[in-house]
From TrEMBL, chain A:
Keywords: Cell membrane, Membrane, Transmembrane, Transmembrane helix. It is found in: Cell inner membrane. Belongs to the binding-protein-dependent transport system permease family. AraH/RbsC subfamily. It comes from the Bacteria. The chain crosses the membrane at residues 20-41, 103-126, 133-151, 171-191, 222-244, 300-321. This is ABC transporter permease. InterPro entries: ABC_transp_permease. It is a multi-pass membrane protein.
Length: 330, 509
């Protein structure tokens, strides 16, 4: 039926599939440039010790931001991130399970608690139609309360095996704390090859069209929150490994930083565009930024200010690059 | 005519209401295999509700559906699809941030190794489908957002067709298509294969080319199913418009000479507005008619200062207006006040009192050194409230708690109090009861009698005929007719509305 004269609309290069639409490349470039600056200011920057330290610092935020990405992609905001991280942290501190098997059990508990909290948020948002900020704010406050009940004041000890091994350097080269983010990135790539992964983008872009296309919108939303919660649990696990102690307010700093990492990673806060890997790198970049500013001799009073400005500039530039890349088509 | 036992689809006594609004009432429809049946009706006649019921998006309140003889009660799009009913939606149901291939297979991608979706397999299969339906020039990996509207429409149609349904619903499938022959060829092929097709369109010429029979909906009821060969266009318009329409008690004013022009629009261009020129005179009520999405909404918004025209002039009392926001329109000498259609979203501030809502645009007049006196505010709200017959006791209620009719009265009171001489009313009586309608008509008439000018769009033709002296008809982003006097008859206007001007003329003369 098709006539041969019809000109073929050129197919976009493969990197512009769902995952590559808002490529994390820009964020990665930013990270590399910043690492270069860091190396200029500080000669120890290229040592494996420094690198391990950086990754250790960034790992909990990266995992938390990865979870936040899933909710943001489905057009939502998840404030319960704070509560889940805090609960995971205090459980690790009051219930230290030593040895590799103990660590595995702790890990499973953190993931399970996170998924449970996520399913509560997800149920409220997807099936009860509560606005995501309102629902997750309520869940966050409840979780903070629970964390306080478990551990009323900072203290406790995280199992030694966890705090030692999860922050060590493997083969004196690879930081152990990078393993979980890498696994998460791998799982994300698999998710992109499932109907759920596609549905996540569809729901975030246009709920009505998704529904009319036969996508189970409610279930997709719910699962986004459950998976996100599980990732916050993992983030809490890594945070505990890093701090080695418990704090019922441990999750607080992650709230805004997780959104910053998501935005810096090229994910649209309006949903439907972006990806998880960008957020992982975005989180690493945020933490590196602090180091660079500090080693560059910027007074700690100004670090927050610079960080904010850099964040905005990076996001604006990232947007411009992506627009010029996609804007050449009518 | 196919007999009932062999029918592909049989709808019997289908009713659906949303709250107090009856969308469909006792609708009966039968389509046989290989039949293309048209569904005709004005705005709000219930066409889209019928489409939603057939596609499994909403469930009917009562009545039975049978598909190929079996009870058909789909609870979702997917169930409908499994039963053999697919729909190409008017609003297009493609997900814009996914590729053409992904959209074709939603919600389940083709799987390769280990149950993971295989881009390669999907692209190959999608290419086959696109070729088969004659749109092989679309790139399967292209993101839908990068396609032109016409291509998206084609893709929407192909997606519905490729599931090989026994009933295919096409809702305004040619709205964005310049080349309709492509669609006609595909429809005829499906027809030969025995697919039943429900074809919804307001373009009579297309319908006559494709369909054998047409079912006409009016106010949610199926008026009749006619053999298109035996019914003239005039008959069809008559059936769509209906007889015995209740006339408003307000009788249009007759005037000898043309009034002084107040609002003059020259060659206005904008999104969905093409070369629109119009004049509204002092003391004149000008009606505007148009089917959904013909550009009337965009035109009203441009005139109200919400959005910038690409070209053209808006003159008020002979002065050129440059509107950057609705505030400009309100503050212009003479003033233009706009009453939008979505009162819940754009009209009211639900948590404020009715009095607050009415006095919002003139708060500066009611305040001393920036502080608003509640007493003066309440007093100021009383006069316009009386104009629209809004009872005083409602003034202190939160407007969100009032009925839709009273909310609408309050919004019109606000427009009156703003002091603007020119009112733009977009469907001011949508969803209000008869008494409220009368009150609103009287308020509009009084405003005009006092030297104000009114441009009013309504989805109800009888209302326009009763209310206005002249009626402009919008079709395809343009004003296609300016009808006055005895030409303002429903059957004639329906012809103009649906872009069948010649036919309408034939009916008229």
């Amino acid at each position: 039926m098709a006539t041969l004269i019809q000109n073929t609309v050129e197919a976009p290069p493969p990197w512009r599939g769902v995952m590559g639409r808002h490529p994390a490349c820009f964020t990665l470039m930013l990270y590399i440039v910043m690492y270069g600056m860091y190396a200029m200011f500080d000669s120890k920057a290229l040592s494996s010790y420094t690198f391990t330290n950086l990754i250790n610092n960034a790992s909990p935020l990266a995992l938390a931001a990865a979870g936040q990405t899933l909710v943001v992609l489905a057009r939502g905001f998840d404030l319960s991130i704070v509560g889940t991280l805090s609960i995971a942290n205090v459980i690790m501190a009051v219930l230290p399970l030593d040895g590799p098997w103990g660590a595995l059990a702790s890990f499973a508990i953190c993931v399970g608690v996170g998924a449970l909290v996520g399913s509560a948020s997800g149920y409220l948002v997807a099936y009860r139609g509560v606005q995501s900020v309102a629902a997750t704010l309520g869940v966050m406050i409840i979780c903070q309360g629970i964390a306080l009940l478990i551990l009323p004041a900072p203290g406790g000890m995280v199992a030694e095996w966890v705090s030692d091994e999860m922050t060590s350097t493997l083969f004196s080269l690879v930081p152990a704390s990078i393993i979980l983010p890498v696994i998460v990135a791998g799982l994300w790539m698999l998710l992109g090859k499932t109907d759920l992964g596609t549905a996540l983008y569809a729901v975030g872009a246009d709920q009505a069209a998704a529904e009319l296309s036969g996508i189970p919108v409610k279930r997709t939303r719910l699962l986004a929150y459950v998976m996100a919660g599980a990732l916050y649990g993992v983030a809490g696990f890594m945070l505990s490994a890093q701090t080695a102690t418990g704090d019922p307010n441990a999750g607080m700093p992650f709230l805004l930083l997780s959104f910053a990492a998501v935005a810096l990673g090229g994910t649209s806060l309006a949903g439907g565009q972006g990806g998880l890997i960008g957020s992982l790198i975005g989180a690493a970049t945020l933490m590196l930024m602090q180091k660079v500013l500090f080693s560059g001799g910027v007074s700690s009073f100004y670090i927050g200010l610079f960080q904010g400005v850099l964040l905005i500039v990076a996001i604006v530039i990232g947007r411009l690059i992506n627009r010029s890349r996609t804007g050449d088509r009518p | 005519m196919p007999d009932a036992t062999a029918a592909t689809l049989q709808m019997q006594g289908i009713s659906k209401s949303y709250g107090a609004t009856v969308a469909l009432e006792n609708v009966t429809l039968t389509i046989g295999p290989g039949e293309v049946q048209a569904l005709l009706g004005e705005n709000g006649a219930g066409k889209s509700t019928l489409v939603k019921i057939l596609s499994g998006v909403v469930r009917p309140d009562s009545g039975t559906l049978r598909l190929n003889g079996e009870v058909y009660a789909p609870g979702s799009i997917l169930q409908a699809r499994r039963s053999g009913v697919t729909t190409a939606f008017q609003e297009l149901s493609l997900v814009q941030n996914l590729s053409v291939a992904q959209n074709l297979f939603l919600p389940s991608a083709l799987k390769g190794i280990a149950g993971l979706s295989s881009t390669k397999a999907m692209h190959a299969a999608a290419r086959d489908i696109l070729e088969r339906y004659g749109i092989g020039h679309l790139g399967v990996a292209t993101q839908v957002s990068e396609l032109a509207l016409a291509e998206r429409q084609r893709l929407e149609i192909v997606r519905a067709m490729q599931f090989k349904p026994s009933l295919l619903v096409l809702d305004e499938p040619t709205a964005a298509l310049a080349d309709v022959q492509w669609l006609f060829r595909l429809v005829r092929e499906l027809q030969v294969q025995g697919t039943a097709i429900l074809y919804i369109s307001h373009r009579l010429a297309e319908i006559r080319e494709l369909a054998q029979r047409a079912t006409i909906l009016r106010s949610g009821r199926s008026v009749s199913t006619v053999d298109l060969g035996a019914a003239s266009d005039g008959d069809i318009f008559e059936m769509m418009a209906g007889h015995g329409v209740v006339r408003s008690t307000v009788v249009p004013l007759k005037r000898a000479s043309r009034p002084r022009p107040v609002l003059v629009v020259n060659d206005l261009e904008g999104c969905n507005v093409k070369g629109v020129s119009l004049t509204v005179g002092e003391g004149e009520i000008v009606g505007m008619a148009g089917l959904e999405g013909q550009g009337q909404r965009e035109l009203f918004r441009l005139l109200a200062g919400d959005g910038q025209p690409k070209a053209g002039q808006i003159l008020l009392n002979g002065k050129l207006l440059r509107l950057t926001c609705p505030r400009d329109a309100l503050r212009a000498p003479g003033g233009i006040a706009f009453v939008p259609e979505e009162r819940k979203v754009e009209g009211i501030f639900a948590s404020l009192s009715s009095a607050n809502n009415i006095t919002l645009p003139v708060l500066d007049r009611l305040s001393t050194v920036g502080l608003v006196s509640p007493h003066r505010e309440a007093r100021a709200a009383k006069a316009p409230a009386k104009e629209v017959d809004l009872s005083d006791r409602y003034l202190n209620f939160r407007i969100g708690n009032l009925s839709g009719g009273n909310q609408q009265k309050a919004i019109i009171a606000r427009a009156l109090l703003s002091g603007a001489k020119t009112l733009l009313l977009f469907d001011p009586t949508r969803g209000v009861d008869v008494a409220t309608k009368e009150a609103i008509y009287h308020a509009i008439r009084r405003h005009a009698a006092n030297g104000g000018s009114v441009l009013v769009y309504s989805s109800e033709l009888p209302e326009l005929i009763a209310l206005s002296e002249r009626c402009l008809v919008m079709y395809g982003s343009r004003i296609v007719a300016d009808v006055a006097g005895s030409d303002m008859r429903e059957s004639y206007l329906v012809g103009l509305l649906t872009g069948n001007a010649q036919v309408a003329d034939a009916v008229s003369h």
